[in-house]
Amino acid sequence: MIIRSKAPLRLGLAGGGTDIAAYYNLYGGYVLNATIDLYAYCSIEPLDNGRIIFQAADINAQEEFDSRSRLERSTLLPLHRGVYNRIVSDYCGGKPLSFKMTTFSDAPAGSGLGSSSTMVVAMVKAFVEWLNLPLGEYDIADLAYRVERIDLGLTGGKQDQYAATFGGFNFMEFFENEKVIVNPLRLKRWIRNELEVSLVLYYTGVSRESSNIINEQIEHARRGDNKNIEGMHEMKRQAVLMKEALLKGDFKSFSLCLLHGWAAKKNAAASITNSFLNELYQYVLDNGAESAKISGAGGGGFMMIYTNPCNRIKLIRALKEKEGMVLTPSFTEIGTQAWTIYHP
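and the corresponding structure tokens:
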């Protein structure tokens, strides 16, 4: 028997950063995102030899040790250990499990597409399938958040876990006391198609450590720095305006929201952009783009570019002249999934 799962990566369209606890606990956060056809994958093969094997195929990392109730912290595969510890503690009564877990992702860590949190969701979903755990979508997303942010102490926001779990286009609201509301958007098919053919993803080739950027935003929120907090407020406002633009199919307004949202995001933390990204931003505008933003916390990773579909090929050709990777993803409607193979 083998249990497999996958969870979709997401594009943060607007409001990213307002899903940080230091901000939403004071002001409330709004985020608009959508999942795409890039995934994090997990496979679990139960064993009967009292061993645990973790294998991250995409980064060529592996750990193997005797099964036990709690695994100590490690810098090699901390997410794998964190998920295991939480599952055994909360749902197995401390009884150790024996299995081989293999994971890999379609996007590198630091891509700005929520790859780390999406991987945690995929791992949690695999355990839910294997152990038949009574966890719904909100439960899975919350558990994944707690593993990363509380158990492992990894800095970050909250949108990624919910995007990967629910899938599709969602307008998310974050409030104090860990209250989260996920509002699925029912976009007309032509609107989805038009947006899909208007977007280009460009991997800058610069992986960034999002925690450094987020820590800067957290510090600004705690101190109440006016310029930075106003930037966060504006990002939240643009999320609302972009939601309305998408529902109406108003792509001129969508593009303006993307522009204004990026401008506001740069005010939230100095490390969100740099001279390389500023030059790249101007380059895409000079070659057919109408607006763009760096996905995720900023500082590197993927740039999400909006263009007139008739200019898309011109833009792609220009980007291929630079070092990096061009993607034209499709949107997905379904969140994390899991299935069991009984006769592999």
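(Above: one complete record from the training split.) The longest strand covers residues 29-46.
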